[in-house]
Specification:
The structure holds two protein chains of two kinds. By secondary structure, chain A is mainly beta. Helix content of chain A is about 0%, strand content about 50%. In chain A, a hairpin with a 6-residue loop joins strand 4 and strand 5. The radius of gyration of chain A is 13 Å and the shape is globular. By secondary structure, chain B is an all-beta fold. Chain B is globular and about 40 Å long. Classes of the chains: A mainly beta, B mainly beta.
Chain lengths: ~110, ~110
């Protein structure tokens, strides 16, 4: 199985400051069709996960533009340009390139 | 607007079979993979498997021997059965649309306890 490693696992951030989460894969996530199926999800306390970004950098409708995704191959990053209170939660990367699809362990973002 | 609504028994005894159903409202039922994902309390997310509208399934190897998924296209519903449950199967179970899910169900907490 593809193993996704996230760092940090805990991320205390001051309001208005940037935040960055790394996701590294044990294998290249480039699919044979040329796409890289790496997504980011946000899970607020008590809620279902919410997709933020798909295929590395495509932000979903309604997702604030302070969220951005980047990377390639095995190294990916989710960045929040200015953290707001509503961003508190756990962030997961997920790969949909190789079955079984897998999630990273999650990064818990909290306000410092 | 697509909505996924799920239901099923929330408390099971060891060795029983977990059964959950997810109803899809809005949007097309065909042309998508329909997915089940679970999350043990306080832990991360785990893929269980997927089923297409035609009934083609793929299961996570770790659960394959105990999982069955099915669809009822007449009702736009799909189901998950997980047999011989143990305490390790205690989790919130989510239904979701697609291999890169944008739409999720509300989650169902299933507790396995004697």
């Amino acid at each position: 199985d593809v193993v996704l490693t996230q760092s940090p696992l805990s991320l205390p951030v001051t309001l208005g400051q940037p935040a960055s989460i790394s996701c590294r894969s044990s294998q290249s996530l480039v699919h044979s069709d040329g796409n890289t199926y790496l997504s980011w999800f946000q899970q607020r306390p008590g809620q279902s996960p919410r997709r933020l970004i798909s295929k590395v950098s495509n932000r979903d409708s309604g997702v604030p533009d302070r969220f951005s995704g980047s990377g390639s191959g095995t190294d990916f990053t989710l960045k929040i340009s200015r953290v707001e209170a509503e961003d508190v939660g756990v962030y997961y990367c997920m790969q949909g390139t190789q079955w079984p699809f897998t999630f990273g362990p999650g990064t818990k973002l909290e306000i410092k | 607007q697509v909505q996924l609504q799920q239901w099923g028994a929330g408390l099971l005894k060891p060795s029983e079979t977990l059964s959950l159903t997810c109803a899809v409202y809005g949007g097309s039922f065909s042309g998508y993979y329909w997915t089940w994902i679970r999350q043990p309390p306080g832990k991360g997310l785990e893929w269980i498997g997927e089923v297409t509208h035609s009934g083609t399934t793929s299961y996570a190897p770790s659960l394959k021997s105990r999982v069955t998924m099915s669809v009822d296209t007449s009702k736009n519903q799909y189901s998950l059965n997980l047999s011989s449950v143990t305490a390790a199967d205690t989790a919130v179970y989510y239904c979701a649309r697609g291999r890169n899910p944008y739409y999720w169900g509300q989650g169902t907490l299933v507790t396995v306890s004697s």
